[in-house]
Design goal:
Layout (H helix, E strand, L loop, with lengths): L12 H24 L6 H9 L22 H12 L8 H19 L7 H21 L7 H28 L4 H33 L2
Length: 214
Amino acid sequence: MPDKHERSSVWDEYEWERFLQQQDRQTDRYMELLEKHMHDPERDQIIAEEMGWPSFPNNFDFEPDFDFSAALDEEELDEEIAELHAPEDFELHPLYQSCFALTVWLDQILDEQCDALIASSAVKLATNSAIASAKLAAALSDDSREELGMTIAYLKRALKAISNAIEASLVFAEESRLSSHRRRQLHARLFHVRDGIIELMGEYRCEWRRRYGR
């Protein structure tokens, strides 16, 4: 992610979208190289060169900065464990919880369907619902709202994913012969998430205009 201090101005959603698309292309290129050189003992070095990254050293001299000999007392240890297991802010957001609950519910539905896991519509439905959940997590992780443009850009990606899931759900409902009750449940959950994303995008765009006047 670019450092906000290195930018001449605050990025809007379109500038963030261009940046994210560039990152997508970099990720795709990395995955192609990883698959191609998976079994090469010089894999990391080859990938680094082709990606234009700094070369890896031949060996690593690792000396931990932390003094592991200094033991925590029981109270301090409890505090450390509590921090590790504390939920992230985005996990507490109702919209994220709805989307995550949707992915869990879909897993249960697909497990009940004998041929669901091999149907392309089922794969598309489950995959895009999971992508929407991940994009929402990315959007809602900026709890301080310092990067409104980034948040909106990720919300747009979440909206695209859930729209793809809705499209796939229409085919899946027919192919899997879902009952009318299950169909209503499925579409109600999908559209609840979609409408929530649209509403949230509107709120962030209003805040952007209030803050920056453009």
